[in-house]
């Protein structure tokens, strides 16, 4: 009996580990296929509450990753410090977004990031790009490794659980 339950536990662990590695690989491939990001990160976007999803009409690779929900976050976290440029034009600052910025957008659309709690810095002036605080994209680009560490600490903290409990009733799609 003990041997069979130990074997079942081991097989479950191996299956979940293999699935997790495959999912990580899928996310990495999908990130390279993302060709656009939501308008709320580039323009003066105003979300109007309608019956349709705010993700309607967006890049299918972007949507697929967000639908993986919080399962995608551990993999996306490791991209936060990636300064490699994507092919996605940064229409508000010029140039192109980095994979670190793309990972930030994806994480933020899966689970909104409380900027102050994560960075311990004040970010209350909006205006740079869509709904982002002024200077935040440059912060991610220039201090990506630091932000990746800060977000990693936050991701495993009680602060995150408290934040999720506060925003859960608000998140609809």
Q: What is the H-and-E element order?
A: HHHEEHHEEHHH
Instruction: Please tell me the total number of domains.
Output: 1
Mean pLDDT comes to: 79
The oligomeric state is: single chain
Largest sheet: 2 strands, antiparallel
| Strands, total number | 4
* Total helical elements: 8
C-alpha Rg (nearest Å): 18 Å
Shape: globular
Query: Distance between termini?
Result: 45 Å
Q: Strand pairing plus helix content: what structural class?
A: mainly alpha
Poorly predicted regions:
4-19
- Range of strand content: 5-15%
Q: Going across the major beta sheet, what is the strand order?
A: 1-2
How much helicity do the residues have? Answer: 40-55%
Can you give me a brief rundown of this structure?
The chain is mostly helical and 173 residues long. It has helices spanning 2-33, 60-67, 73-77, 99-110, 115-119, 136-142, 144-155, 158-167; strands at residues 85-89, 96-98, 126-129, 132-133.
Features of the shown structure:
globular; mainly alpha; two-stranded antiparallel ribbon; 173 residues; 53% helix; 8 helices
Write the layout of secondary structure elements.
Blueprint: H1 2-33, H2 60-67, H3 73-77, E1 85-89, E2 96-98, H4 99-110, H5 115-119, E3 126-129, E4 132-133, H6 136-142, H7 144-155, H8 158-167
Antiparallel strand pairs: 1-2, 3-4
């Amino acid at each position: 009996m003990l041997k069979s339950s130990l074997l079942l536990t081991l097989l479950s662990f191996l299956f979940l580990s293999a699935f997790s590695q495959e999912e990580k690989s899928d996310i990495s491939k999908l990130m390279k296929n993302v060709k656009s990001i939501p308008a709320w990160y580039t323009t003066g976007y105003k979300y109007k509450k309608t019956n349709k999803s705010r993700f309607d009409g967006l890049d299918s690779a972007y949507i697929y990753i967000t639908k993986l929900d919080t399962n995608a976050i551990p993999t996306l976290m490791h991209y936060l410090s990636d300064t490699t440029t994507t092919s996605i034009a940064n229409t508000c600052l010029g140039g192109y977004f980095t994979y670190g910025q793309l990972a930030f957008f994806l994480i933020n659309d899966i689970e909104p990031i409380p900027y102050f709690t994560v960075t311990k810095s004040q970010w209350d002036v909006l205006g740079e790009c869509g709904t982002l605080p002024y200077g935040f994209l440059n912060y991610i680009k220039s201090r990506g490794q630091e932000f990746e560490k800060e977000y990693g600490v936050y991701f495993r903290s009680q602060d995150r659980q408290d934040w999720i409990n506060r925003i859960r009733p608000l998140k609809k799609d």
